[in-house]
């Protein structure tokens, strides 16, 4: 059955807005900063129980308030980052949450405090356990029509994810995408990923990348029946207008192939559920910005646009 665009949004932005006022939910614990200054993320009870059992000196648990607070001695960023590195490493060594930590990346993700300053660093693979906001960069490389200003005639370079990838193997993706790890900047990451994933030179990417805003959504990733983790995500989006001569090529094994597809083909594949879920949202945003999706023809236009620009009850960068 063909999906609507709103269906695609609902598959990715799945956490109800009412949860922000329901901290005592049996399915949700708040991860609190050591000084009580803010909530860093939402966690499921199974993870909270194991963390407190294994690392009682690093956390304070309040079952009545459904909170897990970092211990007061973790009062500097280096102390917190060291603690979270130790916690993640120990969990992996003891084979806790292999569905999550099996994708260990040796890459650090930043977590911010209410003052928008770096609060701690956490191993990328472990970040879903803590329910903190993660950041990424998504780039849509497209070729326009020389003889027409009709946006529906543009074509997008669309990769198919490698079939051996641990997540969403064989699904369609954005031209280039990658996580925003520490200490890299947004543009720096975009340029780096263009080279690593599509074989585009730094000069080519830097001269053509156009920042086009952000999308945000609150996903829940069901790693297993008992691990349905909260994953709030922010994606910085870039447009990459390309000439007809340059062809992206798989480089790092992340991509099986690239195809240049028109709007109708892309919408068909999106509605068939063949795109990686968050990538479908990036494509919807791209189509809205390029007037391919408009409020005259899309009955759910308002809900779609609001839900792909979600606000979170957590500090951001």
From TrEMBL:
Residues 134-285 form the Nudix hydrolase domain. One of its GO terms (molecular function) is 8-oxo-dGDP phosphatase activity. PROSITE patterns: NUDIX. It holds the Pfam family NUDIX. Gene3D superfamilies: Nucleoside Triphosphate Pyrophosphohydrolase (3.90.79.10). PANTHER family: THIAMIN PYROPHOSPHOKINASE, THIAMIN PYROPHOSPHOKINASE 1. This is Nudix hydrolase domain-containing protein. It comes from Magnusiomyces paraingens. The lineage of its organism: Eukaryota, Fungi, Dikarya, Ascomycota, Saccharomycotina.
